[in-house]
Amino acid sequence: MSISEDAAGGGAGSIARPRLEASSPRYGEKLIRALLGLCALVSVATTLAIVISLLVPTIGFFGEVPFVDFLFGTDWAPTFADATFGVLPIVIGTLTVTFWALVVAIPVGLLSAIYLAEYAPSRVRRTIKPVLEVLEGVPTVAIGLFALYFLRPLFEDVLPFLPWSGPFSVGVAGFAVGLMIVPLVASVADDAMRAVPSGLRQGAYALGAGKMTVSLRVVLPAAISGVVAAFVLATSRAIGETMVVLLAAGATPQMTFPWQVTESVQTMTAFIGTTATGDIATGTITYDTIFAVGALLFVMTLIMNMFAIRLVRRFREVYE
Amino acid sequence: MSPVSGGPAGRTRLATAGARAATVGALAGNGRRDRFAGAAFLALLLLALTVALTGLASLLIWAAIEGAPRLNIGLFTEGPSSLSPETAGYRTAILGTVYVIGGVIALIVPLGVGAAVYLEQFADRSRWWNRFIELNIQNLAGVPSIVFGILGLAFIVRGPFSLGFVAAAASMTLALLVLPTVILASREAIRAVPPSISEGSMALGATRWQTVRRQVLPAALPGILTGVILAVARAIGEAAPLLMVGAVTFVTVDPSFFEGGYSTLPVQIYNYATRPQEVFQVLAAAGVIVMLVVLLAMNSFAIWLRNRYEREW
């Protein structure tokens, strides 16, 4: 580029240099570039379509149901003849499942990640890391079935003093979702800890620190934003999980406390999944309700994802 | 306050804090107690890893035991039936999955690889819209699958596309859902091809596209293939968005792509699982075995492929 500028501004007396610009306009090249750009724009169009498809019915919904009644109401019965639209019970259901999922996934995932990143011999690591990746691909329907038919009876045998009743339990569903997201937590946190420069570790070892001190006091704080990003991504995944809660948590919208693990609850995703399966007429209030709940779910996960992306980006800036 | 708040200063602070912790630990003189704590900590780590692996391993074992009685050829050749559940199978659901996934592959390969090539080789990162596209893809990767079901219902089944509750609508919905996976993996693969390769090619007079087609894409192929296989595996196992675009209908005749009812394997499994009779539970578990065998084989192959062809340039 600089050469061609020189040639243009060289003035009289300078020798004509070869120009480095293409001798033909290369329309084909431009066309290909435009086509590839269109492929990239599909994702933007998808987001736009999601926002539009959520927004239009949601506005219709809030034309009939006051915003405050929706967000703070404690009675959820949108498909009844005498319908009420307080979304809190299904939000609480979602949060309870998420809470128990994180209680399982954070310690198990984080400790596994510390082992993989700091302790495991490279051969063990090379075996376990792909296994975790494969397990990340287990379909959620399978995990839901496992929770309903295997974990639920197992929990009743192990903890017989709890008031078990019926096939559904929010605690079991949460546990199953937790198992499902362990590989995600472990692999993101492991990547974060592996990215910590080894100079930090070696410095601490040189001063006589043990392996536990190095892991917990040096590597973990240094990787904290990546580790937190793993937790946030896991939370977002647990909030959006549908099939496991549909199969194992039941469909009873009710306000429960997190320790009432044997209760059946309905989550936001389960509401959408059960209600939208019928051929509901467009424009009815039930139809609009699905989209209003979907919009709430979308906003919740979007905030968490943006937060996680920022954390990971900051982490990369420090070490790469 | 986060310890990694920025740049070399943050790093120095971390190093200092670590050094202090190390020195305090070493000079405190609790040698034996430290060794005990260290051993206990390692035991805890191993316990966590064991829980993680056995939890999911027991899922596989449970499915194998529970579904074994129904694991026969009828599972593949018989359609679903509520009247004679003893002989019901997954024929129509498996065919439905084949149709839907065929459509998904046809959509995600050109769109995903095209987007990745654009972002890595053509896009000018100093332009805000290119950075916006990147952020947008990262965000889409985290949107819950059920929200894609809403999109499919409002935009593809009804609305602008109005395809109706058919397999093609399911293909489009799932394609949009897994597209970010393909794009992110393909970008990673393309980025791993060193710039010197494409610079060399262009120095010899090749255009950008010739360089991409003849140098970059062949070198990035294993990585791209891994991304595509992982994405397809995810699409095969996905049920939630399909509940909303019509896959729950009870289909007893073989499906087609653009018209008529369809179902897919995971949705059919869900369908059986929600029935109270014991015989359907066994049938559902047998379906899980079929699905898991296919998916685990695909995932293992994809990861093997990536590790096998990982090149040091």
List keywords for this structure.
heterodimer; A: 320 residues; mainly alpha; MetI-like fold; 2 domains; 13 helices; 1% strand; B: 313 residues; disordered N terminus
What would you say this structure looks like, in words?
With 320 residues, chain A is mainly α. Chain A contains 13 helices and 2 strands. In chain A, α8 runs antiparallel to α9. The relative contact order of chain A is 0.14. The model of chain A is unreliable at 1-12 (pLDDT under 50). Chain B has 313 residues and is mainly alpha-helical. In chain B, α7 (167-191) crosses α9 and α11 packs antiparallel against α12. The interface between A and B is large, with 113 and 110 residues.
Reconstruct the topology from this structure.
The complex is a heterodimer of chains A (320) and B (313).
Chain A lengths: L1 H8 L17 H38 L2 H6 L3 E2 L6 E2 L2 H32 L2 H14 L4 H19 L11 H25 L3 H9 L4 H12 L1 H17 L2 H6 L19 H8 L9 H35 L1
Chain B lengths: L6 H21 L3 H37 L6 H4 L13 H32 L5 H13 L4 H13 L9 H25 L3 H9 L4 H30 L2 H5 L20 H9 L4 H32 L4
Describe this structure in a few short sentences.
The complex is a heterodimer of chains A (320) and B (313). With 320 residues, chain A is an all-alpha fold. Helix content of chain A is 72%, strand content 1%.
Q: What is the CATH topology descriptor of the largest domain in chain A?
A: MetI-like fold
Label the CATH architecture of the largest domain in chain B: Orthogonal Bundle
Number of helical elements of chain A = 13
Question: DSSP helix count of chain B?
Answer: 12
The CATH architecture of the largest domain in chain A would be Orthogonal Bundle
What would you report as the Rg of chain B, rounded to the nearest angstrom? 25 Å
In percent, how much strand structure appears in the residues of chain A? under 5%
Strand tally of chain B is 0
Quick one: CATH class of the largest domain in chain A?
Answer: Mainly Alpha
Largest sheet report of chain A: 2 strands, antiparallel
Would you identify the CATH H-level superfamily of the largest domain in chain A? MetI-like
The average pLDDT value of chain B, as a whole number, equals 86
Please summarize the sheet with the most strands of chain B.
Answer: none
